[in-house]
Specification:
With about 700 residues, the chain is α+β, with helices and mostly antiparallel strands. Among the domains are: about 45 residues; about 180 residues, Penicillin binding protein transpeptidase fold, CATH 1.10.3810; about 230 residues, Beta-lactamase, CATH 3.40.710.10. Helices cover about 40% and strands about 10% of the residues. It has 23 helices and 18 strands. The strands form six sheets. It has a five-stranded mixed beta sheet. Helix 4 crosses helix 5, helix 8 crosses helix 10 and helix 10 packs antiparallel against helix 11. The C terminus is likely disordered.
């Protein structure tokens, strides 16, 4: 009997020893696995905490004009800009031991397992804030073992590499509060119309209950359910020593007001401009589309909201509602190239095609100031004269070209360059172009920043090669600023979601035009608004004289299918194009004047209340004299019309006008001297 007892005891000891060994081996394996997981997590390093956030676009004055998102409102705010009551309420109800554990609350896990076993169903969760954050960042919300294991690994990596404050900040900025609001800032704005930093205890405790089930506990879905959960949260805050019982009672009785809408649900400001900004982010800053759409960027632009609204208003009021005419408008600050207003069409919803930056259209006579700038370098002056008459140009290859003036009206005599520009004489332009050679204008437009290809043809002087509206606005800016290079600029600064500046625009002055010649051309372009230059036709800005109240320089242009007006002051350059998208001829008289009228009304409204500035001549290089605008000679006291005109120093006329001398008929006739034709006239003896 004793032998059997000893045998049984030894057998028990044997099993016990085996159990202990197996347990130690199991524990050892578990320790190895655990250390392996830690080592693997360490090797993987810190997971990125960036999440999709709305990219925000701001006007030049800091006003929010738009945001880019995929139906998700996300705005990242630092922890110090979140109400302490909301932070405490969230920790109290979601993870009261958040600051003590290392990512996993083992007591809660054990309690949840027991509760689930008793109920024979999953009735209690045990995920910590860290685990929830890992799920929000990297995982789907399915309930599989694979997802749980991945969640655990991410939670370990987060805890190993980030502080509790960083984890809490990230969690509060990524958790879903319903109605498209991700994060406390978007949720605070949606539910209460205020920032997360401004939330009261009552508001915070109500909001902290929503993430458990936005469809159930949102006060907009069920105020009863939301209020019951708010009470639970306030009680938990008392139990966890965040607040006193009396304060909780007061919060329970506070009546709350809910807004229920996102403050920037649909931003309509300058949609064509916003598209252009996104293209600039992609093509100039080399940002990918996902970063632009959901990178949480803060993009500061050059847009002037008042000028943008003025542009849209004038287009809407000027163009008849039943007209098919489209429009493109660009307004720029000539000092730095900042685009202040942009309209790419009459209705963005109908047609998002941006005619201000994408369409290539014939500029017509608006190309002439660039042509004549080049001519100033080849001996021409504002007083240079040529005949304006119906002309057929014949070429060595047997070809012919017969340009014509508007309404086939000609001076049938000599006119000056200043007058030719003011009345937009085409014969003068083509003669100038052919004299200099087609390459001259092609090279000149490049100097003005125009990159579209130009055709080497006689009609190039009349604007038959297409350009973009934004290119022409930029070219004229170089006249307005005295010859300095500018580039159309839409963005001044870009910050990432952490507030780090990833781009900041700079402007370096580079002179590309001769300042004296640029000023002489600018002063010649004021001629389109000066009736002293009326000749065989009225100046092209004659119809606008009653609408403008300050000095402007500019040039209109038209082809069969395109209507243009580009003009400027020292503060603002604006280019307007109007026409049909399909290149159909503009036949109605009213439609032919749309570009001019929009330009004049826009400039007047945009500059209202701003100083009236004239065009200041450079300190050296130009000389102003009074001339007779009919013949370009120095005006005598007997000339009925005298116009003050600037010339490049040394090219001003020296001969006085003798056409209006007193008692001219009683003076003895002078012997007529034989005169030689000027050099540039000889070139054209083969014309006509």
């Amino acid at each position: 009997m004793e032998l059997m007892t000893n045998h049984g005891f030894r057998k028990t000891i044997k099993y016990l020893r085996a159990f202990i060994i197996i347990s130690l081996i199991g524990l050892g394996c578990m320790l190895i696995v655990f250390l392996g997981i830690l080592g693997y997590a360490k090797i993987l390093g810190a997971p990125p905490l960036a999440v999709p956030q709305s990219t925000l676009f701001f006007a030049g004055d800091g006003t929010l004009i738009g945001e880019s998102n995929s139906g998700q409102k996300r705005y990242w705010v630092p922890l110090e800009e979140i109400s302490p009551d909301l932070i405490n309420a969230t920790i109290s109800i979601e993870d009261k031991n958040f600051y003590e554990h290392n990512g996993f609350d083992y007591k809660r896990i054990a309690g949840a397992i027991l509760a689930d076993v008793k109920a024979m169903a999953k009735v209690q969760g045990a995920s910590t804030i860290t685990q929830q954050y890992a799920r929000n960042l990297f995982l789907e919300h399915d309930k599989t073992w694979a997802r749980k294991l991945h969640e655990a690994l991410y939670a370990i990596r987060i805890e190993m590499n980030y502080s509790k404050e960083e984890i809490l900040e990230g969690y509060l900025n990524t958790i879903y509060y319903g109605n498209g609001a991700y994060g406390v800032q978007a949720a605070s704005q949606f539910y209460y119309g205020k920032n997360a930093s401004e939330l009261s205890l009552a508001e915070s405790s109500m909001l902290a209950g929503v993430p458990k089930g936005p469809g159930i506990y949102s006060p907009l879905a069920s105020l009863e359910n939301a209020t019951k959960r708010q009470v639970i949260i306030l009680n938990s805050m008392v139990e966890n020593d965040y607040i006193k019982k009396e304060i909780a009672q007061k919060a329970k009785g506070t009546e709350l007001t809910f807004i229920g809408k996102h403050p920037h649900k649909r931003v309509e400001a300058a949609p064509y401009f916003q598209d252009a900004v996104k293209n600039a982010l992609k093509n100039q800053l080399k940002l990918d589309e996902r970063t632009i759409a959901l990178g949480g960027l803060r993009v500061y632009t050059t847009l002037d909201l008042k000028q943008q609204q003025a542009a849209e208003k004038q287009i809407q009021e000027t163009i008849a509602s039943d007209s098919d005419i489209q429009v493109g408008l660009i307004a720029m600050d000539p000092k730095n190239g900042h685009v202040k207003a942009m309209v790419g069409g009459r209705d963005y919803e109908t047609s998002p095609f941006n005619r201000a930056v994408q369409a290539v259209r014939q500029p017509g006579s608006t190309i002439k100031p660039l042509l004549y700038y080049a001519a100033l370098s080849q001996g021409f002056t504002p007083s240079s004269t040529m005949r304006s008459e119906k002309t057929t140009f014949k070429f060595d290859d047997g070809g012919e070209y017969s340009p014509h003036n508007f309404n086939n009206k000609y001076a049938d005599g000599e006119i000056t360059l200043a007058q030719a520009l003011a009345v937009s004489d085409n014969i003068y332009a083509v003669k100038t172009h052919l004299f200099m050679g087609a390459e001259t204008l092609i090279n000149t437009v490049k100097k003005f920043g125009i990159s579209t290809k130009m055709d080497q043809v006689p009609s190039l002087a009349l604007g038959t090669s297409g350009v973009r509206v934004i290119e022409m606005a930029n070219a004229y800016s170089q006249f307005a600023n005295g010859g300095k290079k500018v580039t159309p600029t839409l963005i001044t600064k870009v910050e990432d979601y952490n507030g780090n500046v990833i781009f900041e625009g700079t402007h370096e002055e580079e002179r590309v035009l001769d300042p004296a010649k640029a000023f002489v051309m600018t002063q010649m372009m004021t001629g389109m608004f000066d009736s002293k230059l009326n000749g065989y036709a009225k100046v092209t800005g004659n119809s606008l004289l009653d609408d403008i109240t300050r000095p402007y320089a500019g040039k209109s242009g038209s082809t069969e299918t395109d209507s243009w007006m580009i003009g400027f002051t020292p503060q603002l350059v604006t280019a307007v194009w109007a026409g049909h998208d399909v290149g159909k001829p503009i036949t109605l008289t009213a439609e032919k004047s749309y570009a001019k009228n929009i330009w004049a009304k826009f400039m007047e409204e945009s500059l209202k209340g701003k100083p009236v500035k004239g065009f200041t001549p450079p300190k050296e290089g130009v000389k102003g004299v009074y001339v007779n605008p009919e013949n370009g000679r120095l005006a005598s006291k007997d000339c009925p019309v005298r116009r003050f005109t600037y010339f490049v120093t040394g090219t001003e006329p020296t001969e006085y006008c003798t056409d209006h001398l007193e008692h001219k008929d009683n003076k003895p006739a002078k012997k007529k001297q034989e005169t030689k034709d000027p050099w540039y006239k000889k070139i054209f003896n083969w014309g006509a």
